[in-house]
Amino acid sequence: MATEVYILLAIVVVGAAYVFTRVSRALRFHGKMLVTCPETLKSAAVKIDLARAASTSVAGHIHLQLDDCSRWPERGECDQDCLVQVERDPEGHRLWTIVSRWFAGKKCTYCGKPIERLSHIERAPALMGLDAKTAQWDEVAAEKLPEIFSTARPVCWGCHMRETFIREHPDLVVTRPWKKSGPLGEYIPEEHAKAGEEHRRTNQEFGPH
Predict the structure, then answer these.
(1) Which of 3, 61, 71, 161 would you call most buried, defined as having the most Cβ atoms within 10 angstroms of its Cβ?
(2) Complete DSSP assignment for 20-39
């Protein structure tokens, strides 16, 4: 009886390890990917069918198949030749990786603070286009990002929200220019700074000699 139990446990362990290996191989291709469509030579956003990838994983080889593509349903009958790109370098084609690398080391165009590392929990940073409008990167169609990256400028989430509010509610915003001219180097309204300069100039001209 004990021998049968050990054999059963061994079968379960081997089976679980086999399934885990298949799933872990398939998970290398999780998430949205960016590829160059062989037909149009333009960027396309795709997703891999992970269930099929796991079920077809044999001896280290995986048969990939698309689950979704930004060109579908119009071009849903393509040969899926783009899968070669993903199979060779899944991490390099993952959207999250591409976006993270673009924002890495950059500073906000408005406030100058470093852009924080991308997080699935924290608020997403934004992109400022040539039209000076900002949009969170995850609100932009993934297949358009590579082209946008060539001209866009990075913006932190806080500045993006401020600029969006100003753009959408200009009647509720009072813009006052500020100047770094306080006695301790702090920012003060420009009109106050001018008044202070005139006051100092007057004292210098008419003050005691």
Answers:
(1) 71
(2) HHHHHHHGGG-S-EEEE-TT
DSSP 8-state secondary structure symbol assigned to residue 66? E
Beta strands in 23-177 (DSSP E): 33-36, 43-48, 66-69, 126-128, 134-136, 153-155
| H/E stretch holding 155 | strand 153-155
For residue 16, which phi and psi values (nearest 5 degrees)?
-65, -40
Rg (CA), the chain: 28
Per residue in 39-74, pLDDT tens? 999 999 999 998 887 777 555 567 889 999 999 988
User: For residues 110 and 39, is the Cβ–Cβ distance under 8 A?
Assistant: no
For 80, how many CA atoms within 13 A lie in the half-sphere containing its CB?
Answer: 17
